[in-house]
From TrEMBL:
Native organism: Nocardioides albidus
Protein name: Uncharacterized protein
Upper lineage: Bacteria, Bacillati, Actinomycetota, Actinomycetes, Propionibacteriales
Amino acid sequence: MQDSDNFWVRDTEVDGRSAVVSWSARSGESGVCRNSHGANTWHACDYELPEFIAGGAPNSVAWAHYTYNAETNDYNLTSSGYAVCTDKGCPAIA
């Protein structure tokens, strides 16, 4: 049984907006993890991502951090990057 891959999203701003991570894996999976719980809270999203893709190459995950205003459906990009997974899993992303 594969260990789950948790994405934790922290909201640090008292601004009325949600903290959001949009992500895509080299293996084809993608998703959005949104923390709508308010400032100074964490939210976890649980996924099952393969550590390796076809041919044995390590999987990788690209992400983008956004803030989101649900009233206006407005997303604001704050940062982005990627991480390479190994047989030990994917590293924590700060």
